[in-house]
Design a protein that fits this description.
The structure holds two protein chains of two kinds. Chain A is mostly helical. Chain A has helices spanning 13-16, 23-43, 46-72, 80-97, 103-122, 130-150, 178-201, 203-213, 215-220, 225-252, 262-275, 280-305, 311-332, 337-350; strands at residues 163-164, 168-170, 173-175, 254-255. Chain A starts with 12 loop residues before the first helix and ends in a 5-residue tail after the last helix. Chain B contains 15 helices and 14 strands. The chains are: A mainly alpha, B alpha/beta.
Chain lengths: 355, 443
């Protein structure tokens, strides 16, 4: 009843091709953005901003990156955390060695570095596919982690191999409180998510999808495989790289290469599987599921745990419940949370008179 | 499909209601809150449960026996980190504001989480106490006002280890030409001593080779084959968790004598030795406190806590290395609170006030005896610029059943460590644009 597009006539091609063709969607999205930019910083406390929302946004960005590669271009990758590490260490070194560059430029150049590395490791994708490609990207993951652990130059010869983010300033404003870091992350993520959404609707995104669906056919209709696959690797790694830089600068403050280990790659991969492969929205939903649920379970455990169950039982129960929920969602909706949302929207269109 | 949507909505609702949850019972006035960022799951759970179990048991004992620290009861809340840095930061943020005055101090019990939280601690005025772990240069209190690597750091411990090896070889001059191998956990923790070992190698003329072991450390065959070729005189093991028994078993396989293997204190717990079985017999490890239950303070814990079935770990684990380390940590932490109370009054204190207590710790032999921890805790005195205090290490040997102390307290070579720490701290201060405090003016 409320969510129905009848009566919204499109009179021009741009209107028909708009990102959100339905007015209700546009209103909902603007409300969400207003909430994220204005309401949240006003009402949320430091704990929520600094240790829940910021990592959530950063990992959403990484998930978008992987979704471009795996969800849209169909190239399975296990190197996400490695590319994030490239971004993190590139941002650190750019800041250290070229202090005159503004921070945002550092972040973007860090993304470019990650994109370059990603394209190199994307080269095997021209010859191998599927699980074999996953193994090739796994090599990227291990190689990158090894390089940052063992080449002292990248960590400025820190004895423990840990890099720490210097004080940040953006356009002359210092960014050091949780709110400021949240806002910086939010701006980056919002802009990049919008760019991603547009990219997948444009020529390049459509060629990715064509390659995903059947690369031989795509080649036959004139889509250059080399360019398409490498652009997917490059752009995906760019997103991961920026996410890695934000993870270091806006969230943890200090990282060691081990912060970007294989477990992180799997975490991001699970995000897109749970959230929805081939969906920008799904990246956010999946990140929400994977990041928030363990924290929520832990909070619930802390609340009801006193005196009811042994603390060690509680700690292991969290893992059991989390794993159970993943299986539950994969059984009821193998296409991810984004698909659930889509179904909900379809139902809503017909509500309250389904036929 | 309808069911799915309902379930989805239910989860959503749970998430939203969860948003308002992290406010359990608001503590009453006379309470001091201690955050417990424990790890009961993951490959390092033995360390997390033992250490924090001992600490919580000690605080429970003080509450039961003395009614708290000068009448201020200790309260605490657990938060599971699984030894993951990101989860550790989340726990820090969640717990730092709890209790009537916020967190007293934060014990990360992970070098990684220490690195990720100490700057936040400085900004929030919550002392981050990394007792017996990194980062080493944080002993320089003028640059790191809220970071306390109390008792000993890895750097100090490392010099004590070399001293011990020198004693075994019959004098420091005998170290010349010897071959040492440093097998380390490939993380911030493991890498901390590489520089200092190289320095010492140059000083005493021994050779040292470093072998990183990737987390979690179950595959070390290649490394030990190389070690066999090198045939070193000593192997220093900087392991953690499952890496330790694996290394010992591999050493046994290539026939390297365990009596020539020297572990860091995170390689020296019962949980590290037992899985290696008989292979572990003879293994040496450093420690800043001994194992065993024969201390009045542990008897008190047994009587006031475990006899009432209020213990946080199984009673059998009392007296193990990790457990005793937690008790030592509890003793030192509560002593800092007590000292701060002498200055600021017998009431719940803020992190800023407790920072003063940590900086003015003075655990004398008499005081340690009064606490019932003679032989368990070493005398400790800190100051504005010295956030380490003690610095002595005892060595112990595994006889297949238990740890036996085989050395006296061996003092660290502070003359070597301190300049290195200051150099590193100065570099850090420069990178971060920090002006060190002037400690000569402080009280």
């Amino acid at each position: 009843m409320l969510y129905r597009e009848s009566g919204q006539f499109k009179t021009s091609y741009p209107a028909d091709q708009a990102i959100f063709p339905i007015r209700q969607d546009r209103i909902a999205l603007s409300l969400l953005l207003i909430a994220a930019f204005i309401v949240v910083p006003l009402v949320a406390d430091e704990y929520w901003l600094g240790s829940i929302l910021t990592p959530l946004l950063v990992l959403s960005l990484a998930a978008i990156g992987l979704n471009i590669l795996t969800g849209y271009a169909g190239q399975l990758s296990l190197g996400t955390a490695g590319f994030m590490a490239v971004g993190a260490f590139a941002a650190y070194n750019l800041n250290l060695r070229l202090p005159e560059l503004p921070l945002i430029v550092d972040f973007l150049l860090a993304g470019v570095c990650a994109a370059a590395v990603g394209m190199v490791f994307g080269l095997p994708s021209l010859r191998i596919k599927g699980f074999y490609l996953a193994v090739a990207t796994l090599a990227a993951q291990f190689f990158i982690e090894w390089v940052f652990t063992h080449v002292g130059w990248f960590t400025n010869y820190s004895s423990s191999g840990v890099i720490s983010a210097p004080p940040m300033t953006v356009f002359g404003l210092s960014v050091d409180t949780a709110v400021e870091k949240y806002l910086l992350t939010l701006v980056m993520v919002a802009v990049l998510a919008l760019a991603a959404k547009n990219m997948v609707r444009s020529r390049i995104g459509r060629s990715w999808m064509a390659v995903r669906d059947r690369d031989v056919s795509a080649e036959v209709i004139g889509i250059p495989l080399l360019k398409t696959k490498l652009s997917a690797f490059g752009i995906s790694s760019f997103y991961c790289g920026v996410a890695g830089a934000l993870w270091t600068y806006c969230y943890l403050g200090t990282v060691e290469p081990a912060a970007f280990d294989l477990a992180r790659s799997f975490q991001v991969l699970f995000m897109i599987i749970i959230g929805g492969v081939g969906s920008i929205l799904g990246s956010f939903l999946g990140a929400g599921f994977i990041v928030l649920l363990p924290i929520l379970l832990n909070n619930i455990a802390a609340m009801i745990g006193h005196g009811t169950l042994q603390a060690d039982t509680m700690a292991n129960l969290e893992h059991i419940i989390f794993g159970g929920l993943i299986i539950f969602f994969l059984i009821v909706e193998p296409h991810g949370l984004a698909r659930l949302w889509q179904i909900a929207k379809e139902k809503l269109r017909l509500w309250p008179f389904p036929y | 499909m309808k069911k799915t949507i309902t379930a989805g909505l239910a989860i959503g609702a749970a998430l939203i209601s969860g948003a308002a949850t992290p406010t359990p019972v608001q503590a009453q006035a006379m309470e001091q809150f201690m955050p417990i960022p424990i790890y009961r799951t993951g490959p390092y759970a033995a360390g997390g449960t033992g250490y924090f179990g001992g600490m919580m048991d000690y605080m429970a004992m003080v509450n039961e026996k003395d009614g708290g620290v000068n009448g201020v009861k200790m309260t605490w809340e657990e938060c599971e980190t699984a030894y993951d840095n990101a989860r550790g930061v989340e726990c820090y943020e969640r717990l730092k504001g709890k209790g009537p005055t916020g967190a007293a101090m934060f014990h990360p019990l992970s070098t990684g989480i220490t690195y990720s939280t100490f700057e936040k601690g400085t900004a929030d005025k919550v002392p981050v106490v990394s007792m017996g772990y990194g980062r080493g240069d944080a002993m320089v209190g003028s640059v790191f006002p809220y970071t306390f690597p109390l008792v000993t750091t890895y750097w100090s411990q490392n010099t004590a280890k070399i001293k011990f090896i020198g004693m075994k070889e019959g004098g420091m001059d005998k170290l010349k030409g010897k071959k040492l191998v440093n097998v380390y956990h490939d993380s911030a923790y493991g890498k901390e001593t590489i520089d200092i070992l190289n320095k010492q190698a140059a000083m005493y003329g021994f050779e040292v080779k470093h072998f990183p072991v990737a987390h979690p450390g179950l595959d070390q065959k290649a490394i030990w084959l190389q070690i066999k070729q090198i045939a070193p005189d000593w192997v220093i093991l900087r392991g953690w968790g499952v890496m330790n028994p694996t290394a010992i078993k591999e050493a046994a396989r290539i026939g390297f004598p365990r009596e020539k293997m020297l572990g860091v204190w995170w390689s020296g717990s019962e949980e590290d030795m037992r899985p290696a079985g008989t292979a572990a017999k003879g293994f040496l490890a450093a420690g800043f406190h001994p194992a065993g239950k024969n201390f009045p303070v542990l008897k008190d814990i047994e009587k006031f806590v475990h006899a009432k079935k209020k213990g946080n770990v199984e009673t059998e684990r009392m007296g193990t290395i990790y457990y005793n380390r937690g008790v030592v940590s509890g003793i030192v932490s509560l002593e800092a609170i007590r000292i701060a109370q002498e200055k600021f009054g017998k009431k719940p204190l803020t992190g800023e006030q407790i920072q003063w207590g940590l900086e003015n710790l003075n655990l004398t032999a008499a005081r340690i005896k009064a606490l019932g921890a003679e032989g368990l805790v070493q005398p400790l005195k800190t100051s504005c610029n010295d956030h380490e205090g003690g610095g002595a290490v005892k060595f112990q040997q595994w006889d297949g059943e238990k740890w036996n102390v085989v050395s006296d307290w061996i003092e660290a070579d502070k003359a070597l460590v301190r300049p290195l720490a200051e150099e590193s701290a100065a570099k850090y201060a420069k990178e971060k644009g920090i002006t060190p405090r002037d400690c000569s003016k402080a009280m």
